[in-house]
TrEMBL record:
The name this protein goes by in its record: Major facilitator superfamily (MFS) profile domain-containing protein
Upper taxonomic lineage: Eukaryota, Viridiplantae, Streptophyta, Embryophyta, Tracheophyta
UniProt-annotated location(s): Membrane
UniProt KW keywords: Membrane, Sugar transport, Symport, Transmembrane, Transmembrane helix, Transport
Major facilitator superfamily (MFS) profile domain segment(s): 25-379
Keyword Transport: yes
Membrane topology: Multi-pass membrane protein
């Protein structure tokens, strides 16, 4: 099962090989990233397709084709359309609270399986939607899948990965997200050209392909040693699994650390009260501030609404979808590069590099949109 590449942790305590079992397990689990990225990219594309808008959001379609007085930025102003786009995130937020409990109590594998099943049901419902209620309910199911998959998959990858490759494999999840966005943009660009105006159904239903891989693959995924130790008193079973995934019998040092960490975590009472104590304040602040500011940068809005954004500045339907493809290519390539350098440069360096790039690019985007709006008003 081993590829023969042996590694040792920086502390010199753990020995491990990048085994075929780890590679295959991480590839299956990481399809959750493809689905998440696909759902991010696909909805922005279909909401820029006129046949889709005509069927489910006729008011927006009428504004786009008949209303010459309303600004392009206001033509997509629809509470119903907003419900379609935001329902995934609201459902994902609510589901994540339940997903954390399932992941902790029952293990990573069941949580991945629930996420894959929800993804599969949501993609099927979206592709077969006959009215706006069906399509929104499909988005809610996709959101449940996002909540469970994003809770369990990164954790699964971290626990399965050898220590020296943990950073690269974690970013590998983000790479799959980027690939999912790119695939969605490519499919949208192709299905928009289908005559008859039903190409959006293919776009929404194609999420079933990676969802099937994740759901079926989850049935055969091994549970992580951490989860076995956390939820079972059979440490021998955890040791055997650790030997399989590390490709060596010399796992006692890592096993002892995992058992000790699990034992300590079970003795802690009122963890949420403890985390607000002064000595834990730096960790609490960073754990909240980093993801919070990453989201409020607005970069996800640009990714999500890329085709709509390009349409508001005057590009046609096909041109806006092609521009979104270019955005997806840049995102996937950048993530791939970071995956190979993260363990050499460190996480902080990537934060700085990415933050500077986002700062400059969003200033440029804001300037271009302001010029476009001013020109539209002047005309």
């Amino acid at each position: 099962m081993a590829t023969g590449l042996a590694i040792t942790s920086e502390e010199g305590q753990y020995n491990a090989k990048m085994t075929l079992l780890v590679v295959l397990s991480c590839m299956v689990a990481a399809t959750g990233g493809i689905i998440f990225g696909y759902d991010l990219g696909i909805s922005g594309g279909v909401t820029s397709m006129e046949p889709f808008l005509k069927k489910f959001f006729p008011e927006v379609y009428t504004k786009m084709n008949e209303d010459t007085k309303t600004s392009n930025y206001c033509k997509f102003d629809s509470q119903l359309l907003t419900s379609f786009t935001s329902s995934l995130y609201i459902a994902g937020l609510v589901a994540s609270f339940f997903a954390s409990t399932v992941t902790r109590v029952f293990g990573r594998k069941p949580s991945i399986l629930i996420g894959g099943t929800a993804f599969l049901a949501g993609s099927a419902l979206g592709g077969a939607a006959l009215n706006v209620y069906m399509i929104i309910f499909g988005r809610i199911l996709l959101g449940i899948g996002v909540g469970f998959a994003n809770q369990s998959v990164p954790l699964y990858l971290s626990e399965m990965a050898p220590p020296n490759y943990r950073g690269a494999i974690n970013i590998g999840f983000e790479l799959w997200v980027g690939i999912g966005v790119l695939l969605a943009n490519l499919i949208n660009f192709g299905t928009e050209k289908i005559k008859g105006g039903w190409g959006w159904r293919i776009s929404l239903a194609m999420a079933a392909v990676p969802a099937s891989i994740l759901t079926l693959g989850a049935l055969f995924l091994p549970e992580t040693p951490n989860s076995l130790i956390q939820n079972s008193k059979d440490h021998e079973k955890a040791k055997l699994m650790l030997q399989r995934v590390r490709g060596t019998n010399d796992v006692q040092a890592e096993l002892d650390d995992l058992i000790e960490a699990s034992s300590i975590s079970k003795t802690i009472k009122h963890p949420f009260k403890n985390i607000i104590h002064r000595k834990y304040r730096p960790q609490l602040v960073m754990a909240i501030a980093i993801p919070f500011f990453q989201q409020v940068t607005g970069i996800n809005v640009i990714t999500f609404y890329a085709p709509v954004l390009f349409r508001t500045i005057g590009l046609g339907e096909s041109a806006s979808l092609f521009s979104a493809v270019m955005t997806g290519v840049v995102g996937a390539v950048s993530t791939a590069i970071s995956m190979f350098i993260v363990d050499k440069l460190g996480r902080r360096a990537l934060f700085m590099i990415g933050g500077i790039q986002m700062f400059l690019s969003q200033i440029i985007i804001g300037g271009l949109m302001a010029c476009s709006a001013w020109r539209s008003w002047w005309d």
